[in-house]
Every structure is written in C-alpha cells, then in structure tokens.
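tokens incoming
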C-alpha cells in the first residue's frame, strides 16, 4: 500500500512517500523537502526506514524557501558521507543550485582578494536579512546546503545530466521500473528569472561572478532573503481571516466573487513540481508552484484529457489563493487533497478559505464519490469547514492526519 507521510513541520513541507515492493516495482522512497522539526518528526522515520532496509531513492528539494529547506543542510551534514551514511542512504538529490541555473555555460575567473571581500560582504547582508526571520536553526546552517552535498559527495541532479531540473531538460524520469516522475515545472524561463535577480543583486554590491563555492552560498541566502520581500509585496492578496461559521451560500459566494491575483514570487515559480506515477496511482505534487505554467504543462503531458484525475493532490503553496485559482480546480480533481501547514506563518495564515471553497463546491466527477481534505494540523481559522451539515451538502470530509494510505 502506497503511503504518504505528511509530517507536521509547522508552516512548511516535509513529505515522505513510500511505494511498496510488488511484482511490478521495487520498494521506492521519495522525500520531498525538509522543513522544520527534523529531529522530532523526520529523523525517527528515517531511522526506522533504515532499520527496515530502505533507502531514500530521491530527495527532492523543491525550492529554497525556508519552510521547505530549513533542516535540509542539517540532515545532510548529520548523514555524513553519501558512501557511508549515518542515518540513511540517499541515491540522488534534486536541487537547483546556482551552478545549475547557468544555462549559458561560461568560464568564470577565479575569485581575487578584493572580490572575495565584496562577496563575503554580500553574504553577510543576505545573512542578516534571513536571520531576522529565523528562530529554530540559524541562517548559517541553511546556507550550507550546497556545500554539505558536495562535501558528502552526494549524487546531485544526475537524472538531468547534472543540469537544472526543468521541463526543457527532461519531462519524464524513470526512477525505477514502474515508478515515474513526470516533471511539470519549473521552466527554463522561471529559473532564468531567478538567476537574473541574483546577478542584479551581485552587481548592486559590485560583485562579479567568479569560480567559487561562495557563489552557491550567496545564492541560497539571497533567494531566502527575497522570499521575505515577495511575501511583503504580495500581502494584499492574502485573506487569512478566520471563518468559523460557514454556510453553503458563503462557500458559493467565495467561488463566484473571489478576485484572483496570481502569485508572482520568483522563488515560488522555481519550485520543482511533478506527477508521481507508481503502484497504479497518480499523485500530483504542486510544491509552491505558480498555477498558470502548471496548467499549461499538465495539458501538454496529458493532451487528451478534459479533466485530469489523480489519486491524491498535494495542494500548492499550503492552500494559498494566489497559487490555487478556480481555473485549476476546474481542470484537476481527486478524492484526496493534502494541505501541509499549521497556519502559523509570521506573515499570513494558510490555507485560504477561497482555495477550500474551490475544492469542495464542484459537482462530483468521474469515479469520485466523495472528496476528502487531509490537513497535517487542525486549521483553527477554518473551523467551520468541519461542520457536518456543510460536509453533507458538498459531499466531502475533513480529517487531520500525518499518514495517508492509498490502497
């Protein structure tokens, strides 16, 4: 039975998918992101997997937002060498570091003394921006992710021949026989936008691109810092209000009257998103991706389908309205929707009621007889969606669970 561990990692993501061994496929385990609560939540699970003779076949770090990578560097550092792991074997890591974003490869000069001082100053500035929003693990820990991967000689983006994970490089990865990842994003354009923003930041401080691992450190911190600015600029599109009493009319009002404003954060746009096909199941993993390019790529991947059905959908960006327009849910559907957040982000409260309204309000389609929304924390600001009469009216259920089994 395919299982999804939707771990309680505050307002971030840590998701571990276990695909059972069968006549058609070998046991496969995919870890997506590594947010908060590593020691209390993920570590015991990894230790049990190791004791059971399992490994992590792919460790997919979707993007550099803090709530998705907070504990990743600690995990890799504590795991030690790839060839002699202390916690668990990791076959391959997917992560788009700066060196992968350089689509037009060029010979870079070595770092001279003057530029080293400027680059370290740049890192210090980004570090200070990030520290102001962190508490559990310091920014210096998060900034070492690339270094830890190289230090431990981990296999990195091998499925993409050492290049960036994006649809222009590959749209389908066969992890094992019977286990396939169909890549939906990011696009080369989205990654180039991220690279251009970084180069602009370097230029403003007089830093030239050079051949040094410090560039990757600077990139990681820079992306984390601009994520905060993106949130501040986007705050007007976040409802975040508590809706304790919800009626069918209120739900329909959200569906009809909501004004959608698309998420434009370049960090979110760089998210690795995909469809996992395994164990005769299809699971849509949306990370924090922008909806419009995802819809476009889904249409290219499954061109003959008017509505796409999945066995489970991990809702994008913790249920944020800006990543979950009505148009998306007119196109995709599933009996199970997964939402990962405790609603405790310092800048906003997710999920948005509008996203929930889009999910539950539609007529049942295909073979779907009921929809279920699974949270990994109880959404206090949306307590009204647990109302029995509302659930009966729209034919859905809600539960709080960290382990989802797909029979």
């Amino acid at each position: 039975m395919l299982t999804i561990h939707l771990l309680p990692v505050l307002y971030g993501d840590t998701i571990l998918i276990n695909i059972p061994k069968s006549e058609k496929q070998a046991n496969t385990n995919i870890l997506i992101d590594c947010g908060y609560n590593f020691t209390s939540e993920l570590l015991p699970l990894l230790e049990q997997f190791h004791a059971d003779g399992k490994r992590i076949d792919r460790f997919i770090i979707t993007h550099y937002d803090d709530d998705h990578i907070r504990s990743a560097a600690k995990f890799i550092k504590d795991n030690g060498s790839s060839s002699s792991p202390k916690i668990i074997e990791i076959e391959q890591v997917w992560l788009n570091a700066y060196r992968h974003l350089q689509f037009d490869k060029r010979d870079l000069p070595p770092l001279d003394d003057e530029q080293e001082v400027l680059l370290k100053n740049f890192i210090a500035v980004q570090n200070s921006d990030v520290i102001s929003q962190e508490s559990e693990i310091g920014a210096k820990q998060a900034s070492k992710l690339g270094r830890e991967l190289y230090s431990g000689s981990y296999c990195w983006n091998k499925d993409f021949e050492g290049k960036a994970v994006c649809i222009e490089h590959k749209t389908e990865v066969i992890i094992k026989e019977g286990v396939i990842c169909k890549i939906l994003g990011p696009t080369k354009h989205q990654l180039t936008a991220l690279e251009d923003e970084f180069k602009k930041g370097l230029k403003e401080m007089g830093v030239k691109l050079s051949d040094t691992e410090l560039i990757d450190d600077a990139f990681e911190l820079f992306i984390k810092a601009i994520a905060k600015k993106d949130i501040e600029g986007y705050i007007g599109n976040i409802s975040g209000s508590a809706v304790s009493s919800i009626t069918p009319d209120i739900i329909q009002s959200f569906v009809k009257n909501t004004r959608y404003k698309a998420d434009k954060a370049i960090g979110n746009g760089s998210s690795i998103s995909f469809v996992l096909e395994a164990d005769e199941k299809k699971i849509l993993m949306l990370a924090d991706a922008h909806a419009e390019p995802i819809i476009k790529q889904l249409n290219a991947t499954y061109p003959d389908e008017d509505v796409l059905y999945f066995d489970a959908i991990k809702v994008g960006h913790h249920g944020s309205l800006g990543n979950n327009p009505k148009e998306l849910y007119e196109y995709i559907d599933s009996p199970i929707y997964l939402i990962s957040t405790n609603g405790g982000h310092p800048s906003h409260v997710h999920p948005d009621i509008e996203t929930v309204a889009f999910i539950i309000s539609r007529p049942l389609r295909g073979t779907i007889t009921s929809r279920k929304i699974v949270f990994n924390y109880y959404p206090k600001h949306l307590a009204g969606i647990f109302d029995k009469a509302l659930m009966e009216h729209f034919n859905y259920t809600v539960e709080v669970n960290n382990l989802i089994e797909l029979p």
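note: The first helix runs from residue 38 to 51.
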